UniProtKB/TrEMBL annotation:
Domain of life where this protein originates: Bacteria
Signal sequence, start to end: none
InterPro entries: DUF2334, Glyco_hydro/deAcase_b/a-brl
Alphabetical list of CDD domains matching this protein: CE4_u10 (cd11374)
Record protein name field: Polysaccharide deacetylase family protein
Entry's Gene Ontology BP terms: carbohydrate metabolic process
Length: 261
């Protein structure tokens, strides 16, 4: 089943949100708030870069306040680190190249994927967050991981090229696929300059044609001169050309219930 959203949505997301990236997260949020752009914030609840999310109450308060301002809060893995030695060799290789060791769910069997999903949801529930969306680190998730999602009460997950609905475990419904390519930088890599041109050019093209697309903001982007400016320019130009900023949750609502959304 393929679902096509209304013309023109652009979903902006802020990735890798944890105490170790608090400064970068708040910088991106300030930029988006200044523009009135609602974003989806991808939270890493487990131990990553030295601390668990719940271990920084001041930062948690800032994240919850962002949710009150209209930003969506979503689950982004548990520890944001790949699990070594699991899954087919080719899948592990792809995960390493595409996600640089962060593809936590790329090779997991169903039981372990389920356990990590539930632990992540419990960690978020403890700070008052009940997400409806899951974003696997690196946008990579194993077939067993997709199966695990159905038992966890989430409503959608994302991959590089699309957003996918998650039917309830007891439902006979099939998943809907919302085509929406994701644009992001690869800071420090050989393709960094090419990635800047790709993001700005693709954002303009998609906005002009009314195609749904996504722009992903990462904390490490801010450590490289020019990436912040290029990303904000891509967002600004897309909006000027008619793209409508929306969160993943709002996109899902418009597709599945276009009359009420």
């Amino acid at each position: 089943m393929n679902a096509q959203p209304a013309a023109g949505p652009v979903v902006v997301s802020v990735h890798d949100i944890a105490p170790g990236t608090a400064a970068q997260t708040l910088r991106w949020l300030a930029d988006l708030d200044a523009r009135g752009i609602p974003a989806t914030l991808l939270l890493v609840p487990g131990l990553w870069r030295g601390r668990r999310l719940a271990g920084d109450p001041e930062f948690v308060a800032a994240v919850l306040e962002a949710g009150e301002r209209g930003h969506e809060l979503a689950l982004h893995g548990l520890h944001h680190r790949a699990v070594p030695g699991q899954g087919p060799l080719w899948r592990r290789g792809v995960a390493q190249v595409m996600a640089r060791g962060a593809a936590e769910f790329a090779t997991l069997p169903q039981a372990e994927a389920t356990a990590r999903l539930r632990e992540g949801l419990e960690e978020l529930a403890a700070i008052g967050v009940t997400p409806i969306g899951f974003h696997p680190p690196g946008w990579l998730i194993s077939p067993d991981g997709v199966s695990a999602l159905r038992s966890c009460g989430l409503r959608y997950y994302s991959t590089h090229l699309a957003v996918h609905t998650i039917p309830a475990q007891e439902s006979a419904d099939v998943s809907a696929r919302i085509a929406a390519p994701a644009l992001s930088h690869r800071p420090g890599g050989f393709g960094e300059r090419f990635g800047v041109r790709l993001m700005t050019g693709a954002a303009r093209r998609y906005a002009r044609t009314g195609r749904a697309f996504r722009i992903a903001l990462h904390p490490d982007d801010l450590a490289h001169a020019g990436l912040r400016e290029a990303t904000l320019r891509a967002i600004d130009e897309a909006v000027e050309l008619g793209a409508r900023p929306t969160t993943y949750a709002q996109l899902l609502a418009r597709v599945l219930d276009p009359v009420d959304s």
